[in-house]
Amino acid sequence: MAAAGRTRSRREGEPALKLLFAGTPAPAVPSLEALLASDHEVVAVLTRPDARAGRGRREVRSPVAVRADEAGVPVLQPPSPRDPAFLETFAALGVDCAPVVAYGALVPPAALDVPVHGWVNLHFSLLPAWRGAAPVQHALMAGDEVTGAATFRLEQGLDTGPVYGVVTEPVGPRDTAGDLLDRLAVSGAGLLVATLDGIADGSLVPRPQPADGVSLAPKVETADAAVDWSLPAHVVDRRVRGVTPAPGAWTTWRGDRLRLGPVEPLPTALGLAPGELSVGPSGVLVGPSGVLVGTGRGSVRLGLVQPAGKKMLPAADWARGARPTDGERVGA
């Protein structure tokens, strides 16, 4: 499938493409930064409406909106991209293309064909793997050793459009979703600019995604981040890293929620049942080995934990105050 639209010679000083950039969270900011520094012109930014956050429930602008404000770029925040007033404003902008990075809402059919070159989505996976809202989290939880980012032309299907280009990224053995997403946000920004450069000069042709290798990455909810201690230690490890920092892994302890930072898998179970904590004969956690928890196969060493209503602290400090008894379990 060839890139749609026109190509022509550019006059000196004229932007390669006029763009509407759509994005909301912090991982989209590097792409906006890269586009602002490119030969293209970002004439407006589309982002989600200000949301209430924090203990004071103050209205907070999205990271993309904050950066657009700093750059003096007009910000559009319709309640929905289906809003007729937004669609009218969007059409009047006369943009050539609409790059989108984690905007957070579905682009309606009425908007898809407005730009000459459509909407170009930067997605943080190697499509067709991990189509959906949480590709980085699912790649880590699945134990992928390599992931990446892809640019593709948006269509009505879920991340099904033809692909312009990809970059790959190895998954480190201790990477969290936050670590990996930080790196992909930067390398993906370069890919997005290169994609728009290729669209502008007519040299880039998107290719249909293969039919094989499709996997889905739905949003990871808080309930999905509960640790299943019956799984093997290495699976517990990668699932915890996959939901760090958000929504955050958790288990229960004496009826309250206990949030967990990354854990360290150990090859031996040390006779611990799933969820069982290691304790010494006096009821004090074994010091040299740290705080260990049994799994379905092997055990894990806890790192940071966060009891309900308190701050994150080292697991050993938590255990000294909690004083679990012999055989007591988390997640029970």
Largest sheet: 7 strands, mixed
Helical segment count: 8
Q: What order do the SSEs take from the amino end to the carboxyl end, as H and E?
A: EHEEEHEHEHEHEEHHEEEEEEEH
Poorly predicted runs of 5 or more residues: 1-8, 281-286
Helix content range of the residues, please? 10-25%
Q: How many E-type strands?
A: 16
Give a concise summary.
With 332 residues, the protein is an alpha/beta fold.
Give me some keywords for this one.
seven-stranded mixed beta sheet, single chain, alpha/beta, disordered N terminus, elongated, 8 helices, 16 strands, four-stranded antiparallel beta sheet
Overview of this protein structure:
Helix content is 24%, strand content 21%. It has 332 residues and is α/β, with parallel strands linked by helices. Strands 5-2-1-6-7-8-9 form a 7-stranded mixed beta sheet. Strands 10-11-15-16 form a 4-stranded antiparallel beta sheet. Helix 1 packs parallel to helix 6. The longest helix has 25 residues, at 177-201. The chain is elongated. The N and C termini lie far apart (54 Å). Residues 1-8 and 281-286 have low confidence and may be disordered.
SSE topology:
Blueprint: E1 18-23, H1 29-36, E2 41-46, E3 51-53, E4 58-60, H2 63-71, E5 75-76, H3 84-93, E6 98-101, H4 109-112, E7 119-123, H5 135-141, E8 146-153, E9 163-170, H6 177-201, H7 233-242, E10 249-253, E11 256-260, E12 264-266, E13 292-294, E14 299-301, E15 304-307, E16 313-314, H8 315-322
Parallel strand pairs: 1-2, 1-6, 2-5, 6-7
Antiparallel strand pairs: 3-4, 7-8, 8-9, 10-11, 11-15, 12-14, 13-14, 15-16
Helix pairs in contact: 1-2, 1-6, 5-7
